[in-house]
Amino acid sequence: MSIADIKKNAEQKMLKSIESFKNELSKIRTGRAHAGILDQVHVEYYGSMVPLSQVANVTLVDARTISVQPWEKGMGAKIEKAIRESDLGLNPASQGDLIRVPMPPLTEERRKELTKVVRNAGEDAKVAVRNLRRDANEQAKKLLKDKAITEDEDRRSQDDVQKLTDKTINDIDKLTQAKEAEVLAV
């Protein structure tokens, strides 16, 4: 393994950490509706649990309402039950075959709690990035110990990995601030 491989590997893993963090942020709901909020809801379908998107069409009616149209007649009650039992705090209402999921407005107290959740998720993502930095530096140290690289190359490698870490943490901070602003916006 060369220094270039170590850097490339660290960069790829840090990008995956950012993607994972973005995915985590998308699960935190704001006052506005978006179809992705129901992605983690699973429905029982012929004995197995499947994602909601595989048994129904999920669309937005307006800024505060999600519409769920089951593809089969008998699935409405199961979908409604699955949404209600998910930990999203949503209360779906049936209108014939169509299920409407209104997004309740967030209270000020709940908004503050959600900003704490966002900050904690951001901190977890930063810790993951720092762990990746440590792993990359340990790999470079191992190459130095095995005399595969010089001390100058090791130092340059550590500096490059640190720059990459700083850039990634800065990106995470920006995402965190944007999500906090979104959560606090009334």
From TrEMBL:
Annotated GO MF terms: ribosomal large subunit binding
Record has Cell wall biogenesis/degradation as a keyword: no
Domain Ribosome recycling factor: 21-184
GO terms of biological process kind: cytoplasmic translational termination
One Gene Ontology cellular component: cytosol
InterPro entries according to UniProt: Ribosome_recyc_fac, Ribosome_recyc_fac_dom, RRF_sf
Any one Pfam family match given in the protein's UniProt record, by short name: RRF
Keywords: Cytoplasm, Protein biosynthesis
Gene3D superfamilies named among the record's database cross-references: 3.30.1360.40, Ribosome-recycling factor
Subcellular compartments: Cytoplasm
HAMAP family in the record: RRF
Protein family (similarity comment): Belongs to the RRF family.
Physiological role: Responsible for the release of ribosomes from messenger RNA at the termination of protein biosynthesis. May increase the efficiency of translation by recycling ribosomes from one round of translation to another.
Name the record gives this protein: Ribosome-recycling factor
